[in-house]
Amino acid sequence: MSTSSSLHELTAAELADLLARKEVSAREALDAVYARVEEVEEDLHSFVLLTRETAERQAAEVDEARAKGEPLPPLAGVPIALKDIYCTKGIPTTCCSRILEGFVPPYDADVIERCRAHRLVFVGKTNMDEFAMGSSTENSAFGPTRNPWDLDRVPGGSSGGSAAAVAASETVLAMGTDTGGSIRQPASLCGVVGLKPTYGRVSRYGVIAYASSLDQVGPITKDVRDCALLLGALAGHDPRDSTSLPDPPPNYTRALTGEIKGLRVGLVKEFMEYQGVGVAPEVAEAVKAAIARFEELGAVCREVSLPHLNYSIPVYYILAPAEASSNLARYDGVQYGYRSADADGIIEMYRNTRNEGFGAEVKRRIMLGTYTLSAGYYDAYYLKAAQVRTLIRRDFDAAFEDCDVLVGPVSPTVAFRLGEKADDPVQMYLSDVCTIPVNLGGLPGMSIPCGFSPDGLPIGLQLVGPPLAEETLLRAAHAFEQSGQFHRRRAVPVRQRKGRRSAVVREG
Ligand code: GLN
Q: 103 — alpha (psi -120 to 50), left (phi > 0) or beta?
């Protein structure tokens, strides 16, 4: 198992164990990961930047420290892939938008500082929908990522590059962000584990903002133990993010007891059906089988209804674009990145920069948001949406009086084909019907593999808890995972090359 050719397939916990026992070096683990990247990246395009020089230096530093007997954090030397949304000091950060072309942040995001302090090794920056707006990674200015389980399908989004990279073992760990589902939905579509923490649990300092009342950072990993380990490394108070919670994070791995007897599980009716249309039959079947498994493990399951969840999509598509229109006003060609060369005067420079720099979906949302915030429409749209958001939160509060965990699908379908929804924004928005309510409630939510479709495509189960119940989610997810084999299946993405050119950019 410890031959370097298979090191990339290990979980972080397994690899960390071998590293601590000096059976392998951080450099060997990194080489195995990059060998895998060489093998599959041309087909997948999970990364927009490989940070090999940085990674080799980080790995060498860990190996030296270990050789000297210095104390090291548990994940020291484990490779991690970073969504291209975190400011990384000295390393280009684009949010997969042309408008950030050439932007090299002068500082690290809080989560990047934490990764450095935990001595993780940065494999590269992963592909994503531009400014995290999308559910397929097709909105990236650098072209889409492909799903490792079927190269004609999307990996989900917006953290599609991170999920695909983990699923294909191009990295051991990855990080994403989730504003309306962007960690959980790609994790589900790629058959890996993803967790969106409680709003405020992980700092957003230095994370490029999309919709600030919803954005959270979280782990994307091969199994639940790795998820607990990485969440523990990322969580904690940060005075630089005013929404950061003061509560010290617990030791999340201690929650993995395997014991869920008496756990009260609620299957959310509104997750299984939207406007009279049910989720895909294979998804419904896998979720029902998961409920049966929870019962076998001693949980007490029943159906619950949260009627206001039916308004989540319209509420989100008023609030998120409104916040985005404000957050994205800063990209004016002066402060960051791209500036149009072709302009006569400053107003035209602003206009041309934004017109040339932003993609179609980002422009659509800026226009939607500007409209709903404008005088005369604010009360009818923004204020009304904010009020309905409160009703959604109250539905969750009521459900958690009788349930410890709510469950349902993550995505109403398995991974869809590239291009299938690209020209139909409403169909694309519906991909997040089960994930968006959780962001509106500020709650922790998780996706874990719970089955495969007849075509061999992964299906994810969503677990949702009350605020700061990450331990309960991890405990339930771990018990479920360990009772089956879904987490052991690995995608095999290599196929006959059809002359596609690699879009990978290399550091330096
Ligand atoms: N797919 C949703 C959107 O396009 C959610 C994205 C996200 O969570 N960043 O807004």
A: beta
Q: What is the pLDDT of residue 289?
A: 98
Is 388 inside a domain boundary? no
In a domain, 389, yes or no: no
**Catalytic site includes residue 288:** no
Q: What is the pLDDT of residues 236-265, one digit of tens each?
A: 999 999 999 999 999 999 999 999 999 999
What is the position in ligand 1's atom list of the atom closest to the CA of 132?
9
CATH code of the domain covering residue 481: 3.90.1300.10
pLDDT at 507: 56
Residues 42 and 146: their CA atoms lie apart, in Å, by 10
Asked, for residue 357, whether it belongs to a domain, the answer is no
Q: 135 by DSSP, 3-state: which?
A: coil
Catalytic hit among 25, 46, 83, 411: 83
**What range does the domain containing 193 cover?**
4-308+394-490
132 CA distance to ligand 1 centroid (A)? 6
**CA-to-CA distance for 64 and 56, rounded, in angstroms?**
12
Domains: count for the chain: 1
Q: Identify whether 182 is a catalytic site residue.
A: yes
pLDDT at 493: 79
20 in a structural domain: yes
Does the reported pTM lie above 0.90?
Answer: yes
Show the ligand 1 pocket: residues with CB < 6 angstroms.
Answer: 132-135, 158, 178-182, 210, 320, 432
Mark the ranges of the chain whose per-residue pLDDT is less than 50. 1-2, 496-506, 508
DSSP notation for 146-165: -BTTBTTB---SSSHHHHHH
**Which member of 136, 182, 312, 431 is catalytic?**
182
